[in-house]
TrEMBL record:
Protein's name according to its UniProt entry: Metalloendopeptidase
Pfam families per UniProt: Peptidase_M13_N
UniProt-listed PROSITE patterns: NEPRILYSIN (PS51885)
Lineage: superkingdom: Bacteria
PANTHER family hit by this protein: FI17812P1-RELATED, ZINC METALLOPROTEASE FAMILY M13 NEPRILYSIN-RELATED
Organism this protein belongs to: Tunturiibacter lichenicola
GO biological process per UniProt: protein processing
Phylogenetic lineage: Bacteria, Pseudomonadati, Acidobacteriota, Terriglobia, Terriglobales
Gene Ontology cellular component annotations, sorted alphabetically: plasma membrane
């Protein structure tokens, strides 16, 4: 393994696991190996699941058409949120937030709702409108760059048509793993060409 990656700075054994820290060509990668558990199927499953997870969207407002309406702008210091019928010495939370809680029930598409959720919804909306404007009518080269990137990401029809075709080169790299001695080289190639971080236990 050292000859394939040119140099290994240090190797440790911690809790029965061998930890190898590489310096070149990948200075920031640590590969955690357990010799009895490394196999082609495990590596393939891990890397494939990483690729699938990286392809998932994590924002709640990420729908093909974007937000349908503008969320209300949060009020920085809202005195109307105070419930003056509650005794602050008995239940300060009810006193400070009681009226806001009455006026803002949890929306049906959410599992919880609070002021930070309102703020996140507003920020997502503002980001979407900025990106959409840059995609539709860029005013300068920077807007053209991120507008084109946004438009490409929002092209759901193309993504559906292509399916897993964009993943095929990475999957072919994983399928080329024949021996655990190739693992470091495969991990390096996946990191370099596809930005897939791989850690195995």
């Amino acid at each position: 393994m050292a000859s394939r990656l040119r140099s290994i700075t240090e190797s440790y054994v911690f809790d029965g696991r061998r930890i190898v820290l590489l310096s070149e060509p990948l200075p920031s990668i640590g590969i955690f190996l357990r010799s009895d558990m490394i196999s082609k199927s495990l590596a393939s499953l891990l890397i494939l699941s990483t690729a699938v997870c990286l392809g998932q969207a994590f924002t709640e407002t990420d729908v093909p058409g974007g937000p349908t309406s503008e969320p209300k702008q949060p009020i920085i210091f809202d005195l109307s949120a105070i419930d003056k019928t509650a005794d602050p010495c008995i239940d300060f939370y009810q006193y400070a937030c009681g009226n806001w809680l009455k006026k803002n029930p949890v929306p049906s598409d959410q599992v919880r709702w609070g002021r930070f959720n309102e703020l996140a919804e507003r920020n997502n909306y503002l980001l979407y409108t900025e990106l959409k404007a840059a995609a539709d009518d860029p005013k300068n080269p920077l807007q053209r760059k991120y507008g084109d990137y946004f438009a490409a990401c929002m092209n759901v029809d193309l993504a559906d048509r292509l399916g897993t075709k964009p993943l095929q080169p990475a999957l072919a790299t994983i399928a080329s793993l024949k021996d655990k001695k190739q693992l470091a080289t495969i991990v390096a190639e996946l990191q370099k060409n596809y930005s897939v971080g791989v850690f195995m236990d």
